[in-house]
Amino acid sequence: MNTTYTNHKETSVHLHEPANEETLFAPSALKENTHEIGSLSEKLNWLRAAVLGANDGILSTAGLVTGITGAALDHKAILTSGIAGLLAGAFSMAAGEYVSVSTQKDAELAQIEQLARDLENNTQEETAKLSHVFVHEGGTQSNALHLAKDLTHAYPVRTHALFRFGIALDSLTSPINAAIASAPSFIAGGIIPLLAIIFSPTSIILYTTMASVLLALALTGFLAATMSKAGIWKVMVRNIVGGTIVMLGTYAIGTLISLIL
Description:
Blueprint: E1 3-6, E2 12-15, H1 27-70, H2 75-121, H3 123-136, H4 141-154, H5 156-165, H6 175-198, H7 205-228, H8 232-260
Antiparallel strand pairs: 1-2
Helix pairs in contact: 1-2, 1-6, 1-7, 1-8, 2-3, 2-5, 2-6, 3-4, 4-5, 6-7, 7-8
């Protein structure tokens, strides 16, 4: 009888009776699966950075230009401030993503190094921990132990990193990719309110900017919900409400500052 084990990364392996031990999860198959998982993880990280960057670009630029509009500055001043804010935000976003993801990668590498030491010094104990993971996911004690031994012998660090910690060695998170994805997407998002400024008369800049931004936020909300498989309307409404608060708040502050000064 075979029992199917599925880890949280959606990778399935089969727990066989000891008599079929030679057909246990082959090393080549394990390597192929971890590569596929790593590639998917890398793509999701890239998409996450892109959507987050676009969303930040929209909100940051819109908040800036509506605040300046509230201060009753002229069309040229509003546009210049918007462009400066867009470029500054893009560089800041890229740097922030690079630092954040670098920290994550450092933590993953430290975990892998510690895991390698533990496997070298306490192979039996670490194998038992992997066996417990399989048992927790529905395998029998006997089958789980045989599978854990087989996988630990084939690719010790790769196996334990994947099934115990969800780390795919073939594709660790990339700080450079995150930075590359976030900066252009920030600019792409921030261009939307700038285009509204460029093609709108000064008297209606606030309204056209808000309308274009809310439509853009609805789109990024839809993309984010699709990626995370969350409720589409819930995420879209959350984006729109948050964007509205940002723009009205900065407009009010800009208006107040212009009155004080």
